[in-house]
Amino acid sequence: MAEIGEPIANSGGLLVWMLAEEVRHSHKVVLTGQGADEPLGGYPRHVVERIRPYASFLSGPAVRVVRAVKGRDDAARLARALAAPTKIDRYVDILSVVPPEQVDLVVRSASPSARELARDAVGRWTSGEDSGDGLNDFLRVDLRMSLADDLLLIADHFSMRASVELRVPFLDLRFLELVERMPSRYKVSTLGSRKWLYRRAAAASGADGCWLAVGLGVVLTVVGLALAPQIADVMGASTNIAPFAVTYLRISILGAPALLLALAGAGYLRGMQDTSTTLVIAVTANVLNLLLELLLVYGLDQGIAGSAWGTVIAQYGSALAYVVIVARAVRREGASVRPRPEGIRANARVGSRLVVRTASLIVALLTATAIASRISDDAVAAHQICMQVLLALALALDALAIAGQAMVGRFLGAASVHDARAVGRRLIELGIGVGVVFGLAVVVARPWLAGVFTADAGVRHLTLEVLWIVAALQPVAAVVFVLDGVLIGAGDAGYLALAMLVATVGVYLPAALLVAALDGGLLWLWGALALWMLGRFVGMVARFRTTRWEIAGASPTP
Question: Which helix (H) or strand (E) holds 156?
């Protein structure tokens, strides 16, 4: 209070001061994400005003329902609002964290009373006539009181104390004029969904992404079924392996629509900051896949076909879970589940750069498999074992990338560049630590890993040798995967595509083709893969060290 010079204070002011002190040496002007919730209906008190007209018919049951769903504080505010005799009293009761009458118990013999002071303050901004949109009337009052007289006043004082100028993009006059003209149903839905317009747009975009995924999956399925023998031949399958490869490819390609649909659904949930649900679905799908593999391959003796069907069934189970989640979101927010051409084009346009990155990744992996298959049957078997170990560890490390994507996107969207970089730096440190642990685990588990996958002596020998390289790559791979997530969260998909393309075409493919031309063995091929990972490492670290990805207000790429 002494710093502000007025009898108001909250803990947020201290945080603003600490952040301002941190950035004062490098920045004199900073942006804040404050100011969005008041005009757009982002607080629980706005939900109270939205549901108040409906709750007034059954006040008792309504308060009990709100207490069960929203909590005790919101229920208490609703009860006070329903009992308020006038509009001004209602606004006072909704805006008050502590009822004015309780304030009078603390500040005894105060005159005028806390309610009279509050009524006078609220009354300055309250129109005598209703506009026909009660929530918008309340939002106008909230914007002029809570934001201007509390949050921004405190933030301004504490930032200036550190000699930093704080600017608020959400107070742009044209933006506020647009939002105040906007009907309140676009801010808080009838059922109390806050920032409803944003959620509806996100749900519609999620549905469009799912339609795009299904369309691409169907195309891949048709191509895969038609060209399965040719694909097996290009991949270098020997006469003994080719029939099994064609069988597996023709069955597994049926899961392409489900796989892409699951990826689209996971992207939607990541964008909504929900990473726990994706984890549950991924673990459940993989456990189901494992059980189906054991049943179909060993229990029913279906061989390679059973293995493929187990994977396809698990993929469709995962896709179904995401369809249910996205469909519920679409229905809850009142969006359309029908495909929208403009929305599908927007998803395709945003994702096109990531397609280049993913295509480069697939080219690298397929080239490695094709070269390994031409070395020998033992070599391709050992290669696949080691690649599965590498990919399994990559999925575990991807948890850090997902966290980075969500948090960096959130901080940059709120114009908190310093926090975004701090998160990236911390995740890199965690990634290196986890990578070292994973590398040591692979070294210790080498004999067991080789024995689990094969009893063939030749395949086992090659597997044990290549696993040394897999172990050594873990700390490097961890940094690469973390920075993948950080840059995706920063919306830097263009650079990600370029970096992957350069590492694949400029570093890996020349080395891999040289191995093939010189009849090098499997260890030389994995040496080329190690060069590829190091090329990606150099490109990603070089980008992170710059400030080009630190774009305040950046939208994370889905």
Answer: helix 152-161
Residues 191 and 451: their CA atoms lie apart, in Å, by: 57
The Cα 259–Cα 262 span in angstroms is 5
Would you call the peptide bond into 99 cis, given omega within 30 degrees of 0 as the criterion?
A: no
Distance CA 100, CA 93 (A): 8
User: Rounded to an integer, what distance in angstroms lies between the CA atom of residue 186 and that of residue 168?
Assistant: 22
Is the separation of the CB atoms in 281 and 321 below 8 Å? yes
Q: Could you give the 3-state DSSP secondary structure of residue 4? A: coil
In the numeric block, the tokens 């986890």 are attached to 434
Cβ-Cβ contacts under 8 Å for 466 (sequence gap 6 or more)? 382, 383, 386, 522, 523, 526
Phi then psi for residue 357, to 5 deg, are -60, -45
Q: What is the pLDDT of residues 104-157, one digit of tens each?
A: 777 766 678 888 888 888 888 887 666 778 888 888 888 877 766 566 666 777
Q: Return the bridge partners of 188, or none.
A: 194
Rounded CA separation 320/326 (Å): 10
- pLDDT tens across 316-368, in order? 999 999 999 988 888 877 777 888 888 888 777 766 766 777 778 888 888 88
DSSP conformation letters of 212-235 = HHHHHHHHHHHHHHHHHHHHHHHT
Number of Cα atoms under 13 Å in the Cβ half of residue 166: 25
Identify the H or E element spanning 29. strand 29-31
DSSP E strand boundaries for 97-210: 165-167
Cβ(503)–Cβ(479) below 8 Å: no
Confirm if 407 and 423 have CB atoms less than 8 A apart: yes
The tens digit of pLDDT for each residue in 471-511 reads 999 999 999 989 988 888 887 878 888 888 899 989 999 99
Strand pairing report for 165-167 and 29-31: parallel
Question: Do 238 and 373 contact (CB within 8 A), yes or no?
Answer: yes
Tokens coding 294: 């054991």
Judging by beta carbons within 10 Å of its beta carbon (0-12, 13-18, 19+), is residue 28 exposed, middle or buried? exposed
Q: Which tokens belong to 502?
A: 């350069």
Tell me the CB-side half-sphere exposure of residue 9, using CA atoms within 13 A.
Answer: 12
| pTM, 2 dp | 0.60
- CB of 12 within 8 A of CB of 33? no
| CA quadruple 140, 141, 144, 150: dihedral sign | negative
Q: How far apart are CA 476 and CA 497, in angstroms?
A: 19
